Amino acid sequence: MNGRGFFKPRIFLLSGDSHQEGSFLEGKKEFINGIHIYYEEYGNFRAAHTIVLLHGFLSSSFSFRMLVPYLSRDFHVISVDLPPFGFSDKSKTFHYSYKNIAATVLKLLDKINIQKFSVAGHSMGGQIALNMMSQAPEKIVKGILLSSSSYYARAKRHHILASYLPFFPAFVKYYLGKTGVIGNLNSVVYDKSIIDETMIQGYANQFEDPRIFSALALLLRHREGDLPKEALQNIQTPCLLVWGEHDKIVPVAIGKKLSEDLPHAKLVILKQTGHLVPEEQYQDVYQEIRSFLNVETY
């Protein structure tokens, strides 16, 4: 993948006086569970409700750049770069299980004094969000699952064993490079016309750091598989599920199954939309979240 240098913290604001309350605060790093976790803080300074954003696989907080300016009108927004992605550390000693990543995000939020919040996760981030709901239901008001990863099993044994080979990170780099950033983006959006230079650069950026390939090998090794049906049925947090009608990565059928297994779930399917719902339909996603969180009561 062709990177083009590391970004500074991403600042995207809408024009117009109505958005001045919802502005960028700053990007920070906190040392949690032996690694530095990067997060960005946005928001309406008077907002009583916090929403935590968790991106998907091979992504970062960059993927919420279109959605954040809208959310920050009404909410205090924390967008986290899940390890090993974005500006968070790409450590060889961190345990990249979903359970541990979720616990790490919860510890981060404790450290920055976020005690009650709603969590929105896209793709893999949705599975991290579900793990958080399972681990700390008392902290989470509501969950928003955007084309959430669900029902995927752990990697096959021979793939896990292969991850111990010294050349495996080079294989990961080669495998991802075959498709490249543009190829990956073409597979996750319905409307290919939205793919521009800014988008390509934003998703390519993190692959400038060669340590990510070793960390991805560890993620393959440590990932324990998505939460089973029994665990999902025990989650009592109200959840909004938003899916793209043309999602090729996590098909709508997965969203329908997830909405049946979660006790308190509402499924919304967006027309002419692929997997990358936070970018493709950010205005619709914002309106669905705003309505679901009943922003007027906060």
From TrEMBL:
Query: What keywords are annotated for this sequence in UniProt?
Result: Hydrolase
Q: One MF term in GO for this entry? A: hydrolase activity
For this protein, the record's InterPro entries field holds: AB_hydrolase_1 (IPR000073), AB_hydrolase_fold (IPR029058)
Keyword Hydrolase in annotation: yes
Tell me where in this chain the AB hydrolase-1 domain is found.
50-171, 226-280
Query: Hydrolase among the record's keywords?
Result: yes
The identity of this protein, by name, is: Alpha/beta hydrolase
